[in-house]
Amino acid sequence: MPFVSDKVKNLPPYLFASFQRKKKELEANGVDVIDLGIGAPDLPAPSFVVDRLAEEAKHTTNHRYSTYSGCAEFREAVAEFYKSAYDVDLDPDTEVLALIGSKEGIANLMHAVINPGDTVLVPNPGYPAYRTAVQLAGGVNATLPLDDTNGYVPMYEQVDKGVMNRAKMMLLNYPGNPTAATAEFDTFLEAVTRAAEHDMLLVHDAAYDMITFNGYKAPSVLQVPNAKERAIELGSLSKSFNMTGWRIGYAVGNAEVIEALATLKSNIDTSQFLPIQKAAAAALRSDFSAVEEHSRVYQARMEKLYSGFRDLGIYADKPNGTIFLWAQVPDGYSSMEFANKLLYEAGVIVTPGHAFGSRGEGYFRVALTVDEKRLDEVITRMKRLDIKEGTRP
Ligand SMILES: *Cc1c(COP(=O)(O)O)cnc(C)c1O
């Protein structure tokens, strides 16, 4: 491959692609595959958001380039959302930046902050795009270990002191993918304190901030006093408003980092299509009843699968948010073996935990992105398998 860069050659194989290939093979053989692998909402965006997009698309002035940092209406809507949801004040001109989805923000942020050789603390298990973004920027990934035993809060004491001192950036993600773990304010307070101690930038990925259950409200890292001195938060409409394909998100917080990211991006993209930004602004200025409805749907699915798994002797921590259930692989299988067993013997796709880092081994992630009837079918099929009981009570 003479035309392909080492950077691209060195990217890890995309695990989802191999499962999708197996899915096609099985479907070609008449298997009714239930895909709980990819974390993308199955439901549509709210109709008022779609209406606003259609309306704005008719205004031809919206067909021009957006300002680089995103239009004022969108940035102001983000600032208003932070004020009403978190009582956090943001200057829409210097502390808010529109992103073409938070995944784009994560990738470009690394290039805006990280020099080759710089160390970045990345949650393990965690969203795989963090590791590849660090790698593409020439940074060095260091594990920030998370564990079931303490609710997946960062275990700083297990990170080598030298690594803590060297690290230039630390990434967190609550409510989290893949663990579905949620954080309390104290987790962010400690993170900001540790980041200050070791002179790091703290980046919080809040992709699931609005998908929460049982009255739990996810805090923002910017609620920690003076957090803006060294923290930014990434948000997205993808999961909360079922807008994955729209590609709209935002970065908020430290003005210096926001400006660096905006400068970098102004050399790469020219922000998102204005009607999409304006429709997203309408979403953020709404009463959030649509998001509450989406959360109720995910919670009902989660409850169903959680109790179905329990009957099967498969254990999970009951989550207070996200669109995932993170469950223990029953005794006697690796994550990959169990995922393959589900695929080939039950026609059910789940994601093996090791896809999210070494510490994900022993777990599998289920995306709650099919309806309850299909989840009943998942449990029915799994009951036919000979799965040994797990060992946890
Ligand atoms: C889905 C997801 C994203 C990507 O969201 P986009 O805004 O659609 O790019 C980012 N972080 C986590 C943890 C996710 O699960």
TrEMBL record:
Residues 32-381 form the Aminotransferase class I/classII large domain. The keyword Transferase applies. InterPro entries: Aminotransferase_I/II_large, LL-DAP_aminotransferase, NHTrfase_class1_PyrdxlP-BS, PyrdxlP-dep_Trfase, PyrdxlP-dep_Trfase_major, PyrdxlP-dep_Trfase_small. Keywords: Aminotransferase, Transferase. Its EC number is 2.6.1.-. It is an enzyme of class 2 (transferase). SUPFAM superfamilies: PLP-dependent transferases (SSF53383). One of its GO terms (molecular function) is pyridoxal phosphate binding. Its cofactor is pyridoxal 5'-phosphate. Pfam families: Aminotran_1_2. The keyword Hydrolase does not apply. Belongs to the class-I pyridoxal-phosphate-dependent aminotransferase family. This is Aminotransferase.
